[in-house]
Structures are given as C-alpha cells and as structure tokens.
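Hi all, posting the design record for the shared folder.

TITLE: backbone redesign
STEP: 1 of 1
STRUCTURE INPUT:
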C-alpha cells in the first residue's frame, strides 16, 4: 500500500499553488476588495456568498458554510480523497508526490497501471466498433451508440485477437497482470476478459480502475469483474458515478441499482442519475460517499428474495450513519423484472412515477421489523419493540431517530426507551465578542489569521499548565508557526488535518477582521491576558497548598515573587 505523504511535502505544495488559481480554473472568480467572490459551487444561489482569500489561502461560503484550503476544495468539488487531491495539485505544478514508510517507489507507482487500463479501454472500444456481432448484441438490448460511447462500453475479443498481442507489446505482462487485464493461467498470462462486452469502471477523477464484463454467449459467470487490487475496491467503487456527476455536479437524487446494463439503459431513457454496486452489497462506504454528493438516495432492487435480502443489507448499513436532512427510499420492482427490462416496457414517465412512489426509509424499516409478527398480540408487539430498540439504537442521535422511537411507542402502545446517547454540542458560528470572552479560542483565531505574528511570540511554555480548554492546541499551533514561519493560515490548519479540532480550526479561519485590524498587537494582548491567568492560577495553587500542607522554600519564594511583582514574565511576556 502507498505510504504516508510527508507533511513537509504538503507544506511545499501549498506554498507553490495559489488557491485563487485553483478555484478560478473551476469556478470563475471576480475580485471583490481584498478577496475574490463567486456563486457557491456547493449550493444553488443567485447572489455570490462564496469568498476566496489569497492572504489566508482559504475559501468560505457564507451561505452553506463550506470552507477549506486548496486541498479541501478539490476534495469537495471533485470528490477526491486527501491523497488524490494532493496528487492532483502536485501534478498541476509538476511535482512528484513522495511517500513515507510505504515501500519502494516502484511498488507505490500506480501510473503504469492507470496507463495500461486506459489503453485497454481504448482498445476495447475500438474492438467494439470492429465487431458487428458485439454491436448487434447491444442494439438488440436497446442501447444506442451515443449511450455506449458515453459510458465507454467496449468489447474484449477472444484470446487470439491482435488486440492482446498489441497490449503485450506496449506493456510488460507484469503490469497487465497487476492491472487485472491479464491473469496468470497454466499456459502463462491469459486475457481475463474474453468475448465479453466491457464496462469501464472509473474512480472519482474519471480514471479507469477496472472493468465489468458480460459474456456474449453462454460462458459462466455471466458477469465478471476485475480482481481486487491497489486500484480496484468493490466496496468503495460505484459504476456510473463519474458519468452521473458529469451530467449534474450536484444531483438532486441518485438511484442505486444492481447492474451495469441497468445504469446504461436508464441513461438511454433519460434517467442519467443511476449508479450500480459492483456485484456486491451496498456498503457503508458507498452510502457515505453518495450522501456527500446528494441528499436523496433511492435504492432500486428486484422484487425477488435476493433483491429483498440486498435491500435489508443496504438498510442496515444506512441506519448506522443516517442523519437529519438525508432522505432514503426503497423501490422494489415486479417479480422477474429489472430496471433494464422494465423501463423498455413501460417508458421513462412510468418508471419515474415508480421512483416518486418508492417506500420511505421509515416505512420500509417498520415493514421489515414487523415481518412474521402478529401485532394484534402483546407478544408480537413486544417482539417489535425489542427489534426496533436494537436497530434504532444503532443510529446517531437525531430528530429522525427520535421520531422512529416515537412511532415505535405508538405502534406497540408502550414507552420504548432507546439507549442513552449524549446529544452532540450544537455547532457554534465564529463570533468576535464570543471569541474575546474565550481568550484561548480568540488566540487560536488570531494565530490562524497571521501565523507570522505567532512565530514572533515569546516562549509560551509557562502556559502549558494553564487549565483552560484548547490551551494544548494553541501551543501546538504556535510551535508549528515557529517551525514554518512562511505558512498561511489555511496551510497552518492543514497541518492539523486528522486532529479532532481540524473542523473547528476551519470555522475559526472564516473570521474576517475589520479593516485596519492589527492582528499582531491583538495577539500579543491576548497572550498577556493568558499569562496573567496562568499567574493567578499558580498563585491560587500555591496558597491552597500552603493551607493544606505547607510550601517548601522554593515554592514559598515563588509565591512571594508572584505576589510582589505583577510584572513577572509569567504575566507580561516581552514583546518580540
């Protein structure tokens, strides 16, 4: 597996990229005072509330609250993981991403695998055009050339075809094997996909990471996927997601189906917001990924026993992370039908009516929980209460969860107590007066505004024992600013990605000081107040100890010094 990206490289990368250029290449910006503005790409609006600060190297939307650095923007806008966003930015400025502790560069280098897969996809598409049999098969299924082209559908010919010799001539067999294009057989490397229609599977950046393939004849299995490897993970990938997002950046709804042809045939009939799992159950990672893109999921399953079982597994993975504001529904098709066959029979309008009438999550959960129970009997209602308490208890604290318990109470006619979960603290907006009353929070805000001013502060070690929330984080931020004096505020926050306070740091970065505000002077002032608080706290500690058991000579001298000299360095650090 690839090693960790060194923090020093992320620093150098962020120093070389300009967030204004990164965002402007994707969302046109207009100069507005010291900042740049645009309509937010993350929610619909007519008046710009999305601002980019070149000074902080940070963006913030005052409408929806989205904010972050250049890395964070790419992660949100292009749906990339942190390593993928770093790689994309590095590529834009001609830098190679190093790795720590992940083995040799040769093992970590996936570029040859991507190149081999892209070449295979192009070769398969050309082979489709050259194969009347494969073209006629797709036409007979009702698929047009335009839809086939949109999804990059191709054809993997038999092993004796020239295509395989050409791929072997271009790439080492070891690379083709690692990419899943060839497999190791008794006679040596052998084409994995033979006489099959191919469906390229893409990652969030649109790169081919593997294939699904359907046989043209009677070969088994009917569908075959690329093997799991460094690029291809069935539990993370969704077929058609890249194409769905190319159609609509923020889809209002995403339909989750079970087959590649279902996705393509729905798109053929104008429903281009469908994605498919890769022959596996809908995982928690699939669900989390999709809800970052839309607020509504509709799970579409065949009405048979297998479809019902798949729906149950999807629901179990869904409830464990369901949040207020999300919507989920379940659509079960008539026995023997799938989206491919049904939309061809009844057309787009009728299928969309089915989607609109799909069963809401709450109704589906109660239907499932009530299966096999006689709710007219006390024992049946008690069993429902036990099932519901167990399932709903796995959900995060939310209004939706409370409503499910309320409905459970009404259904069984008794109070069903859910497990106690502490309610999360409500998010707080950045407020200057509130921050002023909380000196550590205010100091952290100022450090983020101007890390260079923090780098000039005196030694803050005497604050290490100050009993205030956030003091360790403040000291860590100042130490990081000292070690990297050229960091911008957004870059400083990036150092704490993965820290439990990272999201709070990003919120504090959204604070916009008034014109002419002297950050350095204000920071020195709040640090003086923190030193004064540390001095008073130390005095209280020593006095308490003197009453309880007495002080030694050194502690007594310290207490006398603190009481007689208010200008002690603990209370008034020297300005740098």
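Okay, here is what came back for every position:
SEQUENCE:
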């Amino acid at each position: 597996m690839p090693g960790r990206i060194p923090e020093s490289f992320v620093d150098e990368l962020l120093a070389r990229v300009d967030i204004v250029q990164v965002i402007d290449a994707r969302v046109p910006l207009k100069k507005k005072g010291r900042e740049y503005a645009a309509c937010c790409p993350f929610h619909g609006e007519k008046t710009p509330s999305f601002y980019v600060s070149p000074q902080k190297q940070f963006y913030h939307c005052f409408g929806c609250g989205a904010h972050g650095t250049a890395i964070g923007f790419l992660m949100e806008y292009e749906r990339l993981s942190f390593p993928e966003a770093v790689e994309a930015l590095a590529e834009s400025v001609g830098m190679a991403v190093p790795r720590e502790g992940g083995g040799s560069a040769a093992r970590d280098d996936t570029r040859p695998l991507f190149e081999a897969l892209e070449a295979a996809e192009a070769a398969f598409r050309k082979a489709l055009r050259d194969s009347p049999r494969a073209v006629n098969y797709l036409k007979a299924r009702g698929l047009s050339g335009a839809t086939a082209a949109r999804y990059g559908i191709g054809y993997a010919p038999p092993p004796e075809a020239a295509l395989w010799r050409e791929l072997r001539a271009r790439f080492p067999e070891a690379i083709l094997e690692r990419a899943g294009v060839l497999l190791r057989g008794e006679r040596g490397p052998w084409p994995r996909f033979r006489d099959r229609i191919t469906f390229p599977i893409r990652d969030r950046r649109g790169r081919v990471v593997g294939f699904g393939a359907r046989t043209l004849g009677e070969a088994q299995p009917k569908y075959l996927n690329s093997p799991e490897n460094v690029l291809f993970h069935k539990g993370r990938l969704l077929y058609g997601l890249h194409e769905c997002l190319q159609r609509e950046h923020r889809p209002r709804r995403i339909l989750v189906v079970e087959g590649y042809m279902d996705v393509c045939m729905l798109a053929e009939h104008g429903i281009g917001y469908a994605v498919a799992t890769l022959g596996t159950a809908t995982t928690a990672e699939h669900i989390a990924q999709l809800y970052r893109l839309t607020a509504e999921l509709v799970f579409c399953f065949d009405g048979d026993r297998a479809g019902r079982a798949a729906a149950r597994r999807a629901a179990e993975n869904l409830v464990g992370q369901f949040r207020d504001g999300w919507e989920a529904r379940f659509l079960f098709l008539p026995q023997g039908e799938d989206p491919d066959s049904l939309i061809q029979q009844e057309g787009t309008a009728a299928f969309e009516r089915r989607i609109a009438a799909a069963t809401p999550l709450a109704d589906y959960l109660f239907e499932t929980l009530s299966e096999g129970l006689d709710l007219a009997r006390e024992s049946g209602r008690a069993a429902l209460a036990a099932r519901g308490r167990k399932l709903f208890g796995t959900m995060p604290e939310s209004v939706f969860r409370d409503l499910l318990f309320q409905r459970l109470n009404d259904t069984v006619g008794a109070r069903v107590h859910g497990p106690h979960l502490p309610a999360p603290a409500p998010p707080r907006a950045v407020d200057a007066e509130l921050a002023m009353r909380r000196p550590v929070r205010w100091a952290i805000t100022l450090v983020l505004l101007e890390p260079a001013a923090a780098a000039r502060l005196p030694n803050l070690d005497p604050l290490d024992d100050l009993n205030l929330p956030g003091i360790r984080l403040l000291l860590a931020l100042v130490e990081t600013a000292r070690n990297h004096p050229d960091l911008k505020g957004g870059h400083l926050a990036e150092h704490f990605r993965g820290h439990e306070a990272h999201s709070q740091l990003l919120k504090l970065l959204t604070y916009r000081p008034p014109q002419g505000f002297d950050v350095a002077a204000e920071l020195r002032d709040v640090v003086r107040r923190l030193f004064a608080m540390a001095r008073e706290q130390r005095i209280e500690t020593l006095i308490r100890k003197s009453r309880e058991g007495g002080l030694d000579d050194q502690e007594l001298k310290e207490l006398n010094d603190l009481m007689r000299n208010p200008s002690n360095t603990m209370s008034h650090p020297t300005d740098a």
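COMMENT: The longest helix spans residues 519-548.
Let me know if anyone wants the other runs.
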